[in-house]
Amino acid sequence: MTDALTYLLRTAAPQLIATAVEAELASDLPQFTDVRTGTGHAAVVRNGHHPARPFQTGLGLVNVGSFKVRSKDGTPVTFLSALVPPHVRRSKSLDAALPWLCLKGVSRGEMAPALKALLGPDATGLSANTIFRLKSRLGKVIRELERR
């Protein structure tokens, strides 16, 4: 179940991330402007991009790609994005919240802190009554899925 705002955020997120990673690369490349080949061309250049990979966020899966750079003079050069590091598959907020949800949230009913970690510190509407309603709805959905 998705509302229009979540759909818009989910579909716009890959382009937003690509733009941010491209800006990160553009700020990283100037350090190589003085490095030239024997013919005077730039030695370090962009060289396409890596295939997009799924990245789990609070919005769901978002496909994220990164750019490649290469050196024409044989010097090894790599571009590592600080926003989307290699081998990372989940956002840090999910990594922090999932264990909390599993260990404390579900078993002890302390879901509000974990949901704040997922939704941000300014998240509102996470009262005990709201979380109780969400848990009871989730239980109904799980029971319905088990019947199928």
Q: Overview of this structure, please?
A:
The chain has 148 residues and is an alpha+beta fold. It has 2 domains: 4-71, no CATH class; 92-147, no CATH class. The protein is 48% helix and 14% strand. The chain has 4 helices and 4 strands. It has helices at residues 4-28, 92-108, 111-119, 128-147; strands spanning 44-49, 53-57, 60-64, 67-71. The strands form 2 sheets. A two-stranded antiparallel sheet has the order 1-4. The protein has a two-stranded antiparallel sheet with strand order 2-3. The longest helix is centred in the first third of the chain and has 25 residues, at 4-28. The chain is elongated and about 70 Å long. The relative contact order is 0.10. The mean pLDDT is 78.
User: What value does the average pLDDT take?
Assistant: 78
Helix content: 40-55%
Regions with little confidence, pLDDT below 50 for 5+ residues:
none
Number of helices, counting only DSSP H or I runs of 4 residues or more: 4
Distance between the termini: 19 Å
Q: What Rg do the Cα atoms give?
A: 22 Å
Q: How many domains would you count in the coordinates? A: 2
Biggest sheet features: 2 strands, antiparallel
Strand content is: 5-15%
Q: How many strands in all?
A: 4
Q: Quickly give the structural class.
A: alpha+beta
How are the strands of the biggest sheet laid out side by side? 1-4
Characterize the overall form: elongated
Order of helices and strands: HEEEEHHH
